[in-house]
Amino acid sequence: MERVLPRLPHLRCALGGLTLGAAQVHAADTLKVGISAEPYPPFTYTSASGEWTGFEVELANAICDAMQRECEITPTGWSGIIPSLKAGRIDMIMNSMTITNAREKVIDFSIPYYHSSGAYVAASDLDIDIPEGLDGMVLGAQAATTHANFARRALRDSGVQVRLYDQQEQANSDLFSGRVDVILADEIAMNALIKREEAHGFEIKATTPQHPAYGEGVGIGIRKEEGALKAAIDDAIQKVYADGTCTALSNKYFDTDVCLG
Q: How are strands ordered across the β-sheet holding 182-186?
């Protein structure tokens, strides 16, 4: 994986063993980019045509291009994405994974490429002070995320009942149907959520403060023994900062620049 390939055409996402881009490269040279099989719009989701797209899919595309490497988008269940990386079924994780001390014990990370706080979303007509007003309420969050970790550590004395979900969309659906009172998730994703038609009547009530649960920002996860790959990814991230690609994609999906370059 450490061999640098000749410059490839701009890469395009594909599934089912098809690679990104037109160049024909031996399978051993293809980097498998792991994203969660559970959609997480606007970061990763399937388009009307069934193809994966979103901020991180397009940014992964650009990073692979900057590395002059052929890549393959490889959807993997979120709960098993780190084991899949360690087992060699994927080569990098690019799916809003926050760099935390616990994760750094088992995998390595690139430099961070964006940072976002958590955001609480509830019905617009719900008058609530957070965290004091959470007492007696039900809060939804996606399991195995920094938001679930924050809720467990920072909200344990608030009196709130935390309900965990395998997928963020399940938590969103339960909020809209009234089965939970509030949800906690990535602020960028929640800004996109409240713009949806089905989210009419819901709003962001507060954002989370600085907390160790939120780590150092979001990075690309890689195996610890892949030092050369980490260096190449770090260099590629700097390139997509410098040439404006990251900012352009951020503005496209979020109407603001979340890139850390």
A: 161-165, 138-142, 182-186, 118-123, 202-207
Averaged pLDDT score across all residues of the chain = 89
Q: What is the value of pTM for the model shown?
A: 0.77
For residue 197, pLDDT over 90 is answered with yes
- The DSSP H or E segment spanning 183 is strand 182-186
Under 8 Å CB-to-CB from 58, ≥6 apart: which residues? 249
- Cα separation of 178 and 170, whole Å? 12
Q: Return the CA Rg of the chain.
A: 19
Distance CA 125, CA 226 (A): 50
Residue pLDDT, tens place only, 29-63: 899 999 999 999 999 999 999 999 999 999 999 99
Which positions ≥6 away from 217 have C-beta within 8 Å? 98, 99, 112, 113, 114, 115, 260
Interval 61-78: pLDDT, tens: 999 999 999 999 999 999
CA distance 125 to 257: 30
Structure tokens at 42: 């606007």
User: Given CA atoms 146, 148, 153, 155 in this order, what sign does their dihedral have?
Assistant: positive
